[in-house]
Amino acid sequence: MIHKPVIIILTHIVFKKLKVFLKVLLYNQVDMKDTFFTSTQASQITGCSRRQLQYWREKGVVVPTVNASGKGHNVYYSMSDLLELMVMEYLLSVGLSFETAQESLEMLRKKQPELFKANASSEELKRLMILLSPNQLELADYDPEAAFLRVNRHGLPLVPFWGEMIHQRLRENLEGFSGNQEKM
Amino acid sequence: MIHKPVIIILTHIVFKKLKVFLKVLLYNQVDMKDTFFTSTQASQITGCSRRQLQYWREKGVVVPTVNASGKGHNVYYSMSDLLELMVMEYLLSVGLSFETAQESLEMLRKKQPELFKANASSEELKRLMILLSPNQLELADYDPEAAFLRVNRHGLPLVPFWGEMIHQRLRENLEGFSGNQEKM
Predict the structure, then answer these.
(1) CB B81 within 8 A of CB B87
(2) Please, what's the b/e burial string for B68-99 (b: 16 or more CB within 10 A of its CB; e: otherwise)?
(3) Nearest neighbour of B94 by CB, restricted to A92, A127, A157
(4) Which end of chain B is more exposed for a tag (fewer CB within 10 A), N or C?
(5) Beta partners for residue A71, in sequence order
């Protein structure tokens, strides 16, 4: 015999899962073949902390495809979202400030939307360079001569940004992640 | 006839000034020929905000030569301190995080103490490069070939750091500052 409170809790859980499922189903931009990740999984895969993920959700920096304003297990990150997280993680890991990383991500979204397509081909992922100058931030196509001139003649900083590298890093992290999952 | 409270206030001001004067006089590392700047002046010259200056004093990032723990008008920055502030200001202005700027400053102090000598000759001010890698920060002598290889082959960020440029920027700012002072 099952007690009444247990039934209430079970019904609540089923409804919660159903709600998320319907959200995923109804979200018009979502391809159901896509894989989705909870914020815990997204944090483990990308190396961003859960606190960072939460902060970026609130600030609108990287917004999960499903339930952007939600908290905890209700939130789902797509592969495209993970690529955005990888970009933030990379730029912060090389020592850029949060503002610079965020602004670079915004420029990358505009200049190269293919970067955030999970199935982008190598040809689609161009080499770029982030040009850091005092109180100025630019994004340009990578050009070896211009890069050398900038660094060597003008003594100005340069952050090469190769889309292929971000995709490669995500692939490696995903492999490590699914390897760990199987062991568990 | 002067009222008693006025005398008390005047005595207080005279003692305060005398205290600072004695501190400057007694501080064994201080060359009395050096010029000193209040935090307001240091802020106007270097472009760092007064809030940054206060925060960096508290954190021990850039500590004024006279009265490091003091507040407001009791604090005096030497030319050497201004050069440290200029380094922080430059590294932050090109988009590095506070932690990266602070760590770079510490490395610069060790590797090239001449950088913070107000009367350093051009020969003493070597060209360096800050090497930003994921979760790693290094400082090396600038080498055009190594710089190009790093950016072009490995796709890794590089911040050229030319001591002469920092001195040049400070000289220009000081000229602008004394120009403004004369107009006032």
Answers:
(1) no
(2) eeeeeebbbbbbbbbbbbbbbbbbbbbbbbbe
(3) A157
(4) N
(5) none
Task: Report the candidate in B168, B62, B138 with the shortest Cα–Cα distance to residue A155.
Answer: B168
CA distances from B85 to A52, A54, A109, B52, B114 (A): 30, 34, 35, 10, 15
Structural contact between residues B156 and B134, judged by C-beta atoms closer than 8 angstroms: no
Q: Cα A64 vs. chain centroid, distance in angstroms?
A: 8
Tens-digit pLDDT profile for residues A108-146: 999 999 999 999 999 999 999 999 999 999 999 999 999
Tens-place pLDDT, residues B106-138: 999 999 999 999 999 999 999 999 999 999 999
Distance CA A110, CA A177 (A): 30
Q: Give the residue among B76, B61, B170, B166 at the shortest CA–CA distance from B112.
A: B166
Q: Does A145 touch chain B (CB under 8 A)?
A: no
Phi and psi angles of residue A66, each rounded to the nearest 5 degrees, phi first: -110, 125
User: Distance between CA atoms of A83 and B111, rounded to whole angstroms?
Assistant: 38
Q: Can you give the length of chain A in residues?
A: 184
Residue B160 touches chain A, beta carbons under 8 Å? yes
CB pairs < 8 Å spanning A and B? 84
